[in-house]
Structure formats: C-alpha cells, structure tokens
Amino acid sequence: MTGVKEVLGAVVAAPLGWLARLLDTPLRLWQRLAGQNGMVAFFLLPNMAIFTVFVLLPLVINIAYSMTTGAALFLPERTYVGAAQFERLLRCTDYTDLMTCQEDQFWIALRNTGTFVVLQVTLLIVAATITALILNRALRALSFWRAVFFFPVLLSPVVVGLIWRWILDRNGVLNAALVGMGMDPVNWLLERNYAFSAAIGVTIWAHLGFFALILLAGLQAIPRDLYEAAEMDGTKPARVFWRITLPLLMPNMLVVIVLALIRAVQVFDEAYVLTGGGPGTATLFLTQYIYEVGFASLLKNPGLAAAASILMGGVLIVLTLLQLALGRKNERKGKLK
Amino acid sequence: MGRIQLHDIRKSFGAVDVLKGIDLTVDEGELVVFVGPSGCGKSTLLRMIAGLDQPTAGRIEIDGTDVTPRSAADRGLAMVFQSYALYPHMTVRANMAFGLQNTRMPKAEIDTRIAEAARMLEIEPLLERRPGQLSGGQRQRVAIGRAIVRRPTAFLLDEPLSNLDAELRVSMRAELSALHDRLGATMIHVTHDQVEAMTMADRIVVLRAGKVEQVDTPLNLFNRPANLFVAGFIGAPGMNLWAGQAKGGSVQLDNGAMLPLPVGLAVPDGAVTLGIRPQHLRPQAGGPLQAKVRLIEALGPESVVHADMGAGNGLLAVLPGQPDLARGAVIELGYDPQSVHVFGADGQRLG
Amino acid sequence: MSRVMGFLTRRKGGTGWDWTDVFTFVWLGSAVFIMFGPALWLVMSSFKSPAQLSEFPPTLLPYEAQVVTVEGYDRPLPLFSVTDEAGTRTLAEVRRVGTVAQMVDPENPTEVQRINIANRTPVREVGFSWGNYLDPFLRFDFLTYTKNSIFVTGVATLITLLTNSMAAFALSKYEFRGRGFVVVLIIATLMIPLSVILVPLYSIVSGVGLINSLWGVILPTVATPTGVFLLRQYMLTIPDELLEAARMDHASEWQIYWRIVLPLTAPALAVLAIFSVVWRWNDFLWPLIVLSRQEVYTLQVGLNAYAGELNVQWHYLLAMTVITMIPVVLVFIFLQRFITAGIAGTGLK
Question: HEC profile for A170-213?
C-alpha cells in the first residue's frame, strides 16, 4: 500500500501542492485587500457558481419552461401557454379509462411507476430486512457475505441491464435451465407481465445490498445487553424481534423506506436498458416518458416534459420533506438518550 | 519589546456584555496570570489580545503601537492552546516549522531554531513523531516549543496545564516558570486554578464577570485582598467570612460571638464582613470562637476542621498536626487580631 | 477440510438445528448464486464465439471448434466427429448444403464424403475468443469511448473534490451573513434528482455551447450538494483551535485550507472520491442526452447504442460490458471497507 501512496503522491499531490503554493501569494494579497469575507467568497465561488448555473437555475426556469410550448430550446423564444401543458397532461374524458386521456402515455407511465413503486419497494424492504437480520447473526466472514450482497450496487445500470438482458434472453441461460427441468421456455422480456416483473427483480438485485447495509448498521447499533436482558427474562425469539429489534431498527427502517421510495419513483436506467420500456408500454416509467417527450421522440415537446418533471418533482419533494422530518425526529430522540 | 497595554476593552455578544471595560498594562518580561471563575471573560480577553477575536470597543497596544485592527498573524504573538491544537497530520518537527515557513524563513534558520527549542524542552527524540503518538505532557512541551521557535513578542497561554494530571501539572508549572526566567519574555497565562496563579505569576489579574477585581502580586493578593470576591477566591481552603456589626473595635456576629479587630484600624460602626484565613486560627482555651466539629479532614501534617458556630455560620480551620478531635466536640479558637480582614458593606476592604 | 465443515455447520449456538439456521443457509447459499452468478455468466459468455452464443442450450464454458489445415483447401476446415453406419471417425467439413455436408478425411483429402448433419458433432476444446475483446478496440470506437469515460471520471472527480471541499470549508469554518441560507439551500437540493431538471438543464448546457462536449457532461455533476454536505459534516468535527493556532502561526486562510483542513479531511475526501469515481463512471441518462455524436460517447452510452442496434452483436457487447465493469469491480475489491463504512455512516450512494 505504501507504493500506491507514493505513486499517488508523486502523480497527483505533488503538482497540486506546487499549484497551491503558487496560489498562496496572490491569495494572501486578496486576503489583505478583501479581508476574511473576501476569502469566504473565494472559497464559495467555484462551487456556488456551478451549483447556481447547473442546479438552481434549471430548477427555477423549469417552472417557466412548463408554461411554454414549441420546439425552440431557449426560454425567450418559446410561446407562453399558461397551464396548458399541465392540462394536456392531466386531462382525460373518462378517468376510469386511461386510453381516453389526451396524454395517455403519461398516464400509462404514471400507472406503471405507481405499481412499480409499491411492488418493488415492498419486496426490496422485506428482502433487505431479512438479509440484514441474517448478516447480523454474528456470522463468520461477515465482510465476505456483505460483499456478496453489495457487489451489484456499484455496477453501472447499463451493465446491470445488459447482464440481465443476456440472462433473460429467449435463448438465454434461464430458459435453458427451465428447459433442462422439463418446463417450457418463457419470453421473459417480450411478455408484459414477465417484463414488468423482470424490471422489479433486476432493480431489487441491483439495490438490495445498499439498503441491507444501512439496515445492518442500524441492527449493529442496538446494544447487545438488551438482547441479553431479554434472554434473562426468557423472552421468545419472535417476541424479541417484534418488541426489541424492530422498534429499535425503526429509525433506520424509515430512512430506508423513504430512500427506496425516492429511488423507485425515478426508476429509469436499468429498466430502460433491460426492456426499453417495452413490450409496448408495459415498462414505460415516468423518467423515460420525460426523456422521450423531451429529447428522444420525433415530436419533441420540451414544455410538456418540463411539466411532467415538475409533477414528479412534487412527489419527490413530499418524500424528501418526509425524510427530513423523520431525520429530525430521530435526531431529537438521539439527543434525549 | 513586549509591553502590552489594554485601554477600556469591551466585548459584547448581542445584548450580553462579556467584558466591561478593561484597562491593563503588562510590562515587558512580566508573567501575568489572568485568573477568575469560569465565564469571567479571561479567555475572551486573551483571545482579543491574540487577535482571534475583535473587541467591541477599546484599544490594544503592543510596544506603543495600536494593533487593534491587525489580524492575529500580524501581531507577532504566539499562543499555547488549552487543547494544544497541534496539527495532527504533521510531525513534531513540521508542527514547529509550520509557522516559520509561513514567514518565508530560510530552512537553515528554521532547523537551528527547532534544534534549540527541542534541546531546551528535551523533546529531541520526539521530533519525527506525530502528536497522536505523544503523551499529554509531551504534547504540552511540543505546543510550548511551537511557540518558542517563533520568538514572539509575547507568549499567550490559555489554560495550558488544565489537561494534565495533577502530578504533571505541578512539574510543568515549575518548568514554565523556569522557562519564563530563561527566556525573559512577556507571558500572559490564563487559568482558573489559583494555585497555578499564585505559584507562577509576577502579577495576578483577578477577573469577575468581565471586570478586573484586583491586579497585584500573589502575596499582596493573599495578604491584602481588595474586596470580598478576591478574599474568597484566593487562598485554599477559602477564607472564613462572617457578617456582623462593628462596634467600638470589635465585631459582633449573628451568633453573639464578639471578635476583636486589629489594633489601630478605624472601623466605623455598622454592618461589616469579617474575614479570617483558616490557617490563622489556632486552638485557644476560652478563645472568642466556639464551634462544634462537623468534619475533620486529616491530611497528615495538618488537619482541616469543618465546624458550626451556630446561626448558620460555618467555620474552617487549618490546625497544625493531628489534633485529637471527635465529631461533635466543641473547640475553642483564637487568632492574632492583626491577621483579620475587614470589608465594608460595599464589599471593599477597610483599612 | 474439517474446518470447512465446521464453518458450514456452524449454528446459532446450543445444540440441534434451529429453523433459522436452515433459513440462513438457504438464503446465503442462493445469494451467492444469484448475486455472483449473473456477473460470472456474463464473463464466461463474453469469451464465446458468435456461433457458440447462439447455441441453445448454452454451454457453461467457452469452446472453440477445432480446425485443421487440409491439403488442397486454402482456409482451415472445422473438424467434426461423425458416427454413422461406417463407424465413428473424425472428418473436416468442406461445405454444407441443406442437411448434407461435404466432408473430407484430413488424412485422405481427395475423397469427399457426403454426411447427414444429424450424424455429426463438432470437435471442440475449451478456448477463449479474445477477438471479442480486441476487435471493438481495433475496429470500432470503443477505445475512444473508454478514453472519454476516463476523462469524464477523472476530471469530474478532481473538480468535485476541489470545489466541494472549498465550499464545505467556507460553510463550516467561517461565520458570515447568509451562511445558514446557503446550507439550507444545499440540503434542500440534496434530493433533487437530475430527471426533474432535465429539460431546462439541457437548454442551459446548450446555451453555453456544451452539447456534444465532455465538459457538458462534467460540469452539471460536479457541484454535488451531497459532496458539500458530507465534507461539511466532517469538517465541523475539526476543532477550531487548530485553525486559530495556524492563524497565530502566520498562515493565510488559503494555507489553512490547504495545509491544515484538507489533510485532516482526508477520510471524508477518500469516501467522496470513491463515490464520485463510481458515479461518474456509471452515469448514463445525462450523457445519453448531451452526447449524440459517436466520437464523444462515454462507455455507458456506447454500450447502450450497441445494445440498441437491430442486430445486436452480443459477442462484442458482452466483452465490452465486462470491460465497463472492471474499474468498478476493482474499486469494490480494494476499497470495500471505505465504501461500506461510508454508506453506513452517511447513507450516500
């Protein structure tokens, strides 16, 4: 490891250090001229400039954007239409039949995303909880097992999508296994329900380790002596789980649930690479809808995409506020202890 | 070099006045100790001298130059922090060199100064270690060394000994005093420990609630406290202070005891507070003080006796040796009237 | 061996098998299979030739058909093992017409035999199609994609570390008007995902002329509120006395940042660096939008483009997927400890 450190030091740190020394004299001058506030400005400027231009500004003009129409890219050249885009997104003649909606694709994406969120988050949380509980059983080689579950988390969504596309291929290994067991092969990615289930399964596969890890951290923070006390009291294992483990895990659990919800609402990359939204519109999710309306389809309508993204942003803000509120509550609890 | 003058220094945080007008002169080569209970503003005052905080009003002069607007870096002072504030990622040598490098000092000169300071503080074997590998006492020395190599106009020490264990504190105290004699530099030392103040200081500044209560040499503070606060604060165990009525050369306490006052001290009749240090009391059959023993702390060479005189008046006496006393016994004590301190109704010393 | 058995049969404690022990074994056992299996399958498939990839059912290991050079034929001929009325023998195929193949005996190349293809199986041995890996680099643009990905990842990470740490320093170690506002602003945007600002962001990036430029991919990602937040939380734990000591030591504020605070923030910087590398390497949606010309594609966009073609060339695609996976797997193997600690501590991802 020392070798790595030295090489890094020579290649990265040394030239940077040289640069930093070079900067010292002009910055000392600036400090003398502008005082401490001048230095604060200097430290904040690069990050805040980028942040303002590429995060804040888009947030603000997104709202203006959603009230315009046309193909022009820049806001001043676009035509103001008020709430027409939102109306177009939300208007249906008969709300019991999505096909009567003006923007039926949006409603389909919305329904798909809703179903996806409910199913995926539920299964994900259950699987992550079981995994965390098992990893918390004072296993030997814990770091190995943790690695087993965590390994897919770092993989790129494109890679995840392609790996599973290859496995779920009509002539893929999964079908080979089915045939080998005397069953019929399944067209995994070309049948609506199978494709949808595949999207759920693959995203769970990719993210399970992350959530299990947070839950495991929560489990490990539960003092051991509580369990010992329960054992002394002769408490049954199931009761220990419901009355001790679960309540004490709740803060982490809530964070995990909200995080999982936020992620699930935005589902895109893995599913897009896996199914491309198909078959038909079976796995068309909101982000893909925004992407296609805004950028990919022939009839680009950035205003409509902006309106849809604002609706999605609204959902996410609610979830984020929920998380912050929960976080604060936990913090207060922590202080009481 | 090294004369520091404070003119009417004030500091407020919002509506709270932390310092309420401090005037003080620290002479060149002097070791001055700021002492006072926590929250008295002593550390704030030191940080203002250092330039780490700005006073709300007032002027700070070093060698006759007004340095109030200058930043900490440009005042030529060095500080030893309570936590030592050693840079944890640098070796001891790098810690000491850092400040010198910042002034673009030639490397040879830096090496000489570090070698000299390391020899003086006996930390030569530690130079290549990091602070994390040092004991508390060693860190303390490095922190001092880091200040010494700078050859500052004055040293500022912010409770530098409070993180050491009792034994180390005693020896470091002596070493700091020796160092001061050797360097002959101005030092301002902040502490809440009055023993530290008494043993080290040329002069002590007693602060309370943002005001200077008294500035004087340690012995003068002990022998002639200017007011009730200083009287109670300096000396351990604390001075016996009893409220009473002065009448014709003696004081009558609430419990009826009549205590004689020093000869020649003119005390107007009325409410006064009488102070006698526990060390100045001695057993005397038929003495003016009678008390019931509550607790005896036998320390070996002397014994601290806690006793009650009735009417809510407690009594502390330090008696030589190991007197044969039992809890509940009644002792009779006397004293030399010349050792009595008298404070008026305003808390100021009389005479 | 007994140690392995001892490990495998470890139980909750006490004697006998609890149902939870069984469940644990089942869960962990299938996890190894389900979690590692797909990636392993990908790696093994990536070494197969196109012909082998189209086989059903697939073989576990990659095989290569054996070929021989036969006198009178320019190109090497594939070998088959033939079993029919005439017995079992090894022949080389000259050509195939319908269900009948014209074959020759390598020992006796002049006599051509007509064999029904149902009666023969190819002669194969384990072999790796390295061409799957080499060709995309030599013949297609994958070298460019890789270079682009490395550039984006490296530059974005460096800028992220520098700008985020400077901002975090200002927000944690100075008192100034509006500090609380900036901090709240940053926390508030922590959870705003890219997909919410896709359209206006595109117009801004386009407005500054960065469409089809790698900088257009880099800049919107570097001012991550997450990074500022993480570093600030860490810097808050550095005692202010250290900074004051440095100020007394005549250090400029820049030096305090560079020589005191930055080295002390190293653990948090390492976590952020690892995550930034993984994030930027894996980024897909935004590069997909900004980059529409082949020569600026990153690996992820390039892979997706290949996967989206009408005739997917799986042998190349699988190999390139493995290549794309390698840096992340290396990061994972060597820095797992940092990553898991980072996630458990901060909830980052």
Answer: CCCHHHHHHHHCCCCCCCCCCCHHHHHHHHHHHHHHHHHHHHHH
